[in-house]
Amino acid sequence: MFTGELLHEPFFITLTLRGEIIELTKKLVTSYIVEESVKVAKLKRLEQENRTMEEFIQKFRKVARGSKYEERPLVEDFKKGINTTIC
Q1: With contact defined as beta carbons under 8 Å apart, do 56 and 82 qualify?
Q2: pTM of the predicted structure, to 2 decimals
Q3: What residues in the chain have per-residue pLDDT under 50?
């Protein structure tokens, strides 16, 4: 029949895989949070500079895409980035 080691091996493998899945999940969540923070920081620093308004809008949209940033803060950061001397 089966020895005690063989009976416990699938359980050990299951625990090992479970631990690896948990660690991978932690890394993915951490990466996602960091990526979101970086996008928000870029949005807060983004300025029109010498871009046309259309170029600035396109750049802002590109950076904002997928940021999960709420509407009102997005509008506020967009307004802050506008170069009023060329508008």
Answers
A1: yes
A2: 0.61
A3: 1-2, 4
What is the C-alpha to C-alpha distance for residues 8 and 4, in angstroms, rounded to an integer?
A: 6
CA distance 18 to 12: 10
Angstrom CA distances, 55 to 15, 50, 82, stand at: 52, 9, 11
Instruction: State whether residue 8 is helix, strand or coil.
Output: helix
Tokens of 35: 């990526």
Name the token pair of 8. 């416990």
- The span from the CA of 38 to the CA of 29, in Å, is 14
**Residues contacting residue 75 through CB under 8 Å, at least 6 positions apart:** none
What would the pLDDT profile of 23-41 be if each residue is shown by its tens digit?
889 888 888 888 888 888 9
Return the closest-CA partner of residue 65 out of 80, 27, 57.
57
